[in-house]
Amino acid sequence: MLDKVAGKCAPWADLPLRLTLGVMFAAHGSQKLFGWVAGHGLQGTGQFFAQAGFQPGLFWAGLVGCSEFFGGLCLLLGLLTRWATIPLAMVTMSGFTP
Fold first, then answer.
1. Where are the beta strands (DSSP E) in the chain?
2. What mean pLDDT is predicted for residues 73-98?
3. Is the dihedral of CA 68, 72, 75, 78 positive or negative?
């Protein structure tokens, strides 16, 4: 019985995760790019990236902000989801560097 229910729900199984991650990444990208949602904008994020050792800071802040914002929108809308996850995964992994 569980197989019948799980089989019917399988096409919709990724929707909650995709929507949650899409909103999360798009919000964080908008903080970095535009200063929305209590963010510091591109200049402030660029200064932070430069202090963290990512030189030039403004370039990396723009790249990360665009990756998060547009990747999050793609996830949210369900467009090119497999391709959108590649830069999002790279941005997430770079957060773990010392």
1. none
2. 88
3. negative
Q: Work out the pLDDT band at 6, boundaries 50, 70, 90.
A: low
Q: Which amino acid is at 47?
A: Q
Q: Which amino acid is at 68?
A: E
Instruction: Say how far apart CA 14 and CA 56 lie, in whole Å.
Output: 37
Q: Which two tokens stand for residue 88?
A: 């999002």
Q: Please name the residues in contact with 65: beta carbons below 8 A apart, sequence gap of 6 or more.
A: 29, 32, 33, 42, 45
DSSP tally for the chain: helices H, then strands E: 5, 0
Amino acid type, 39: G
CA distance linking residue 20 with residue 26, whole number of Å: 10
